[in-house]
Design goal:
The protein is an alpha/beta fold and 259 residues long. Helices cover 37% and strands 14% of the residues. It has one domain. Strands 1-6-5-2 form a 4-stranded parallel sheet, with helices on both faces. It has a two-stranded antiparallel ribbon with strand order 3-4. Strand 5, helix 9 and strand 6 form a beta-alpha-beta unit. Helix 5 crosses helix 7. The longest helix has 23 residues. The chain starts with a helix and ends in a 5-residue tail after the last strand. Bound molecules: zinc ion (2 copies). The site of one zinc ion has 8 residues, from helix 3.
Length: 259
């Protein structure tokens, strides 16, 4: 019976989501969909204030920035301070990276479902996690910009997971979310299937700006789901920095990149 209720609930949720996006389009409207509050680890229902159930709270691999590089969050060696050697050689155009959890173990299942397997509802829990991390960090930003998908990817996935989280962050901190400003104009291969050199080539020139003067003098919070090699953040920032005053990169998770 419980399994039936769960399956029925998911079908209802997906139907509702597709219906609303079909009728109203994607922009902002997703904020008004009554997605349920679920645990970001196991997917079970939780209260409005929480993003993880009691038994999953201790399983969350939070990221600490102590002794970590400011721009990639990898551990610093004893000879490095603030920024690691790799980031010093090739300095990104964003000033800092903030990320909430390690992309590993328990977190992989829901993050993959969120990204690839039609579970937009997980953005509710991730957004709570994101807002808590940003509030604790205290970093300042004037607006939020999500890393965009190409039109083709958006069509096949049905939603941009980074936009869903970016919208909620903007709502919580009462700043605008510019979701039509940074555009992905190039169809790219899946970064996860490529090595570092191929990733850099793949994402090069993938983004452009519309009405860039809106960014003049602003401090942007650039939001993506997972930071792996950093190529996407670097490329998006290189386009935004021509107008923005400052960019802070933010992701829900950070994956260890295997060179
Ligand atoms: Zn749980
Ligand atoms: Zn670094």
């Amino acid at each position: 019976m419980l399994i039936f209720v769960e399956i029925y609930g998911k079908i209802l949720l997906v139907t509702m989501f597709l219906g609303v996006t079909f009728v109203f389009g994607f922009k902002d409207k997703l904020l008004s969909i009554p997605f349920p509050d679920t645990c970001i680890v196991c997917g079970k229902p939780v209260s409005k204030k929480e993003y993880a159930c009691f038994s999953c709270q201790k399983k969350i691999p939070y990221i600490s920035d102590v002794f970590k590089c400011r721009t990639c969050l990898s551990f610093l060696s004893s000879s490095e301070s603030g920024i690691c050697g790799d980031c010093l050689i090739k300095k990104p155009d964003y000033s800092r990276l903030i990320s909430c959890v390690e992309y590993e173990g328990y977190m992989k299942k829901t993050l993959r479902a969120f990204k690839f397997y039609n579970r937009p509802d997980y953005h509710i829990g991730y957004s709570k996690l994101a807002c808590e991390a940003l509030e604790r960090d205290g970093t300042y930003f004037d607006c939020v910009v999500p890393v965009p998908l190409s039109t083709k990817s958006l069509k096949s996935r049905g939603y941009n997971q980074s936009l869903l989280v970016a919208n909620r962050i903007a709502f919580y901190f009462d700043v605008p979310c510019f979701d039509d400003l940074l555009i992905k104009t190039k169809e790219t291969k899946k970064q996860s299937e490529l090595n570092l050199e191929q990733r850099m080539k793949n994402i090069k020139g993938a983004f452009s700006l519309s009405n860039p003067e809106r960014l003049n003098g602003l401090h942007i919070l650039l939001v993506d789901d997972i930071f792996t090699s950093g190529c996407t953040m670097r490329e998006a920032s290189s386009v935004l920095c021509k107008h923005a005053e400052n960019i802070t990169a933010f992701t829900i998770a950070r994956a260890k990149f295997k060179y």
